[in-house]
Amino acid sequence: MSSKPENKIINFNDFHPTKSGGRFQGLGNLLKTEISRWRHSLAWWLQIAAVILFCNGITLMASLGSGGDPGIGMMMFPLMAGFYVALSAMTMIQGAVVKEKTEGTAAWVLSKPVTRVGFMTSKFITNCISMTIALVFLPWIVAYFQLSLMGEAIDLIGTFLAMGIFWAYCMFWLTMALMLGSIFKSRRPVMTIMFTVFFLFIAAGSMNIPQEINFLFWWPGSGITDDPLFPQSIISNMLLGNYYVNWGPLILGGCSVLFMAIAFLRFSKVEL
Amino acid sequence: MVTTNEFIIQTSGLSKIFGESKALVSLDLKVPRNSIFGFLGPNGAGKTTTMKLLLGHIQPTSGSATIFGHDIVKESILIRQRIGFLPQEIRFYEYMTAREILNFTMRFYYSGPKNLIKQRVDEILKLVGLENIADRPVKGFSGGERQRLGLGQAEVNHPELLILDEPAASLDPLGRRGLLKVMKNISKDTTIFFSTHILDDVQKISDTVAVLNKGKLITQGPIEEILKGGEGTVYTVKLKGADVDDLRSRLSAQSWISNIIAEQVADISEWQISVTDDGAAEDNLLGMVQAKGNKVLDYGEKKVELEDIFIKLVKEGGE
């Protein structure tokens, strides 16, 4: 270590102090750093390749396997994409907050002029952007062209509406991961709870749940509508231009808002 | 609540209870501006808890504290804008390089100009001796390199107050010496509040200390006063051919001598003589031990070590 500090070379009055961000102080720097990391991260691009390979690839294989029936592809794609989102949330996004808490990086960052609201917001925004691009936008655009080329009359507006519903489903998993991360001190309970919820969603599809409460267990893979006029899943209906929606996706959206509120509240008091 | 300019940190009855465990009990601490304040205590004394409270990482159970006159609970952001912190076990984002970490840290305080930020980052890399590995990801760094980077990121914004939690704990002797030099230089215009259990470091660079044990403050004050507060002045004497009983009785008769310890091996005797009046001792003690033909092999004032005082205080305060 050099024993000669050179503090006096620099006049600190020449620096431009960072503007106060109020309740979101430090958010800009955290976002800039995290987003820059993605752009230069091979892992993130591999994640995009994997999701397209998994969701769109299986959709293609299922369609070809059924003699080129695009209806099978339309059923398979939301199912695979829904499965992949839950899997990603349980394996990767679940650590967004709890990992930083247990490893001590949250304590390091929060020793700087960063508010806890700013820190949690950065986790939400960065993961939201990442999920929107990697798990919603790109695979859905590929699916639109894929299904169209196979001869299905896919409705463009319906595709965007279906994407919106699917995005709400993604946010459900993201906000649940952030909320649980703010509550628990280790990854195990976070993963256990997320897996249990996912299991309930899947199991609900194979159980004789009364129509009146079926929508409570809605997910893109098992989201059969409760209206006999629209016997397919909500997302399949949307893709065909039948703008049908039930309470299922709306409840998921409501849960996301509640989860995020709990995450902010809990993280504001968490001891680091 | 506004503090005087004299003290940069002031706590009043600051307490923290975790469940049944009292981690900190009514701490009244005053850290003078421009001091190097050594915060001492055995493991589990409450040093790290105090630092976490000061940073707003945990909330006090009762009591209050201010830094720069700002309340640690309500105005934590205002405080953190003006301080640098090195935790006991610092963890960085492992994918970042040392340079990226310093840039990332710097941007929380300053948005520009870019050339000045770059200059400051280069300066800090040089200060902590990491310029040769500045562009390597920190996941490959050794404990010592991480600690130096930790000190660098704490100092990069040129803070008014540096809070360092066991800064030398993971350093080898050379690293420790370098760290102490850097701390000494930084202290010219920065107050340093650091915790440690390496008492030698404290004695070398601190001007003020506080001793904490089992969550309670035992003492605080200028280091000279703490050292004086031990056993008074102690003289060590080594004699050849002395009559131990005779000398002991002559010394015991003096009102300014408070304690005598003598050990004899063959015709060599070693003495530790505690005195209450330094003037009387300077005038008379050497003459007394030389009397009757005693040969003085060694004579001097015993240097009181902080370690002795620390052990005494901790034993008195908590055992």
Write the layout of secondary structure elements.
The complex is a heterodimer of chains A (272) and B (319).
Chain A: E1 16-17, H1 27-39, H2 42-65, H3 70-93, H4 95-103, H5 105-109, H6 116-149, H7 156-183, H8 187-206, H9 211-214, H10 234-239, H11 247-269
Chain B: E1 7-18, E2 21-27, E3 30-32, E4 36-40, H1 47-55, E5 62-67, E6 70-71, H2 76-80, E7 83-86, H3 98-107, E8 110-112, H4 114-127, H5 143-155, E9 161-165, H6 173-186, E10 191-196, H7 199-205, E11 208-213, E12 216-222, H8 223-228, E13 233-240, H9 244-252, E14 257-265, E15 268-275, H10 278-290, E16 295-301, H11 306-318
Parallel strand pairs in B: 4-10, 4-11, 7-9, 9-10
Antiparallel strand pairs in B: 1-2, 1-3, 1-5, 5-6, 11-12, 13-15, 13-16, 14-15
Helix pairs in contact in B: 3-4
Condensed summary:
The complex is a heterodimer of chains A (272) and B (319). Chain A has helices spanning 27-39, 42-65, 70-93, 95-103, 105-109, 116-149, 156-183, 187-206, 211-214, 234-239, 247-269; one strand at residues 16-17.
